[in-house]
Amino acid sequence: MRDVSGLLRMLSPRRISVVYLLILIFVVFSITIPDLFLSPITLQSVASSQAVVGILAIGALLPFVAGEFDITVGANMALSVIIMTSLSNSHPGIGVVTMCLIAVLVCGLVGLCNGLLVGRLGINSFIATLATSQVLVAIALKISNNQQVLAALPQGFMDLGQGRTLGVPNGLFVTLALGVIIWYVLQWTKLGRHLYASGFNREAARLSGVRTQTLVIGSFVASGLIAGVAGLVFVGQVGTFSNSIGAPLLFPAFAAVFLGATQFNFRPNVWGTLLAIFTLALGVQGLQLSSSAGGFWITPLFNGLALVGAVLFSRQQGLRQAQRAEATVDEETTSVSPLADDDAAATRDSEVSRK
Hints:
This protein is 80% helix and 2% strand. It has helices at 2-10, 13-32, 34-37, 40-65, 73-90, 96-120, 125-144, 155-162, 170-188, 190-200, 202-207, 212-238, 247-260, 270-290, 298-354; strands at 149-150, 164-165, 168-169, 240-241. Strand 2 and strand 3 form a beta hairpin.
């Protein structure tokens, strides 16, 4: 009986609502537009386009677990792309591996700056990273001269970025590999437990001996490095830089982080985030394919509504858990009160008899 109740709790819509939403999307669009929605081209297109968004979401997840926001992930990815394209044209002799290392390390340095602003100087993370993102946009525009830059990367690198293995885009394997690494760190290591503790109650974690300031700075550095990897995957897929990349990917990444935090264990997690990304992407793709007119307006509308719904759902979960905790405290108080009254009465009786 206990196993059945545990299974029912695991399958509760409150715990895996995104799974049910994904099933609903598949059923609806498989019935209405089966030829378009179920085609291998559609599924491969979604997997390829969302690989970069998934990497950005994993990068944004780490500061989010620590209780902070990193708004620079999109602009940091764009910085990685312009570094790769610029170096491939101006210094092709240094090799593609060196270019990749430079791009990722520069993005990690940006993350370090964000971490120092937030963790050391105490600036609000939203304000600090929003300001830093504008600086990164200015740097990218300066390097590119506000023009589209075509990368002169080796053909092997482009084939790897645009290729498929077993029918799956190679970029998706990078996303899944990063997901496994971050999941292991958050779920099974002391570092992950300290990150969650810092995010839930930083002062209590600090008093318990957790180096919260170092964790916050490190989470931003890791976010910057992962954003740099997202830039490598993007330039491998597209091969060009334009001033429009980065920012449009920020919103779906954060929508997935918020929505994923309501899934499975009711806290920010990797698999809930990745599941939310592909669920939202399939929903957008289905609506665009079924729209007779131009569907350019569907993506921002769907992502905006998804983000509001995710925040509301997360808020409801928090209120429900708080009410459950208060009820538990009330029950404990009620159960303890009669015992306390009996002890007081016994003490009084003993005092009277002694007198």
